[in-house]
Amino acid sequence: MPDLTLSPVAVPSRADDGDGADFRELIALRNAHYRRVRGNDEYTMTPEQALPHWQDRSDRLMEGLLARVDGEVVASGTVTFPQEDGAVTGEMNIRVTPDRWGEGIGSQLVTVLERLVAERGRTSAQGWSEHPESDGDRLAAATGYGSLPRDHVTRFLVRHGFVLEQVYRNSRLLIGGDLCDIRDLTADARSAAGAYRTISWEAPTPEEHLDGFAWMKSRMSTDAPAGGVDVPEQAWDAERVRRLDAKRVEGGYRVFVTAAQHRASGQLAAFTELVVDADRPLSANQDDTLVLKAHRGHRLGMLLKGENLLRMREAIPEVAAIDTYNAEENRPMLSINEAMGFVPVMYAGEWQKRLS
């Protein structure tokens, strides 16, 4: 097992500052991971895009380490700490360069990161893994929905005591032409949602919708399927929405939001988001989508996703695909995606290890 030198990653004021070299290395390792797993650059980020999320510690505190052997960077480790009162989790991520796999570097980093989680009084270490589909033996999720191949990542996490709590399906929709099928599905859903009107905007969120949108964002932590994962109830207010909008816009992203407003009460009842890198607009990421529990059963999910896609495509016609992640037990949302034409391309795991 090699002797690692670990150094904390300083968060620079600017990504190109002289003291930002380690931060740039950290992001380079992240990007290399996504290129290797996905086979393209669509999930890469520039240091300038990543930096706002590291600088703002109001809602999520992020700590990073670089691991070196004889001065050469061979791995990174990060931990993200939600800042809600009573939060018990630390979200860990480890990237080891492929030429150093099997040398015990990841195992050393797991020990260090778990210690960082425990030192902050957190009792749940969590992780996320992504897996191209493959044949062979599989590991089922604790939810009973979905499974992952027993590849080297899965075996590593199991060996270190992590439980596969959930499996997520990464689906992709190729978009082109006049999108007649999407228009038809959207129109059909609209006919079932007469008690609601739709409202659309591009970030930043309009002042008149900040409070209602903040409430819906907070419900993502309570109403979305989570299996046995410890998820702190997130506290959102207008200021937190402003902070998120500012980080996204500063990072060069365009965010398209469509929400449903209940006509009788004026309350926002559902929303969906699409995020596009303005400098590389070949694909979009489907971010949060939620219909509040009291407003389900009116086909709002299909309506909003369809309208938002059509609006985004009109604004940025270069976008050729949309990627989304959904828990395998979230059959209502998977059914919407399948009807729209999304197909599975990869699978991901939500892992957890309780430290005490």
TrEMBL record:
N-terminal signal peptide: none
SUPFAM superfamilies xrefs: Acyl-CoA N-acyltransferases (Nat)
Gene3D superfamilies xrefs: 3.40.630.30
Domain N-acetyltransferase positions: 21-186
InterPro entries per record: Acyl_CoA_acyltransferase, GNAT_dom
CDD domains noted in UniProt: NAT_SF
PROSITE patterns: GNAT
UniProt-recorded name of the protein: GNAT family N-acetyltransferase
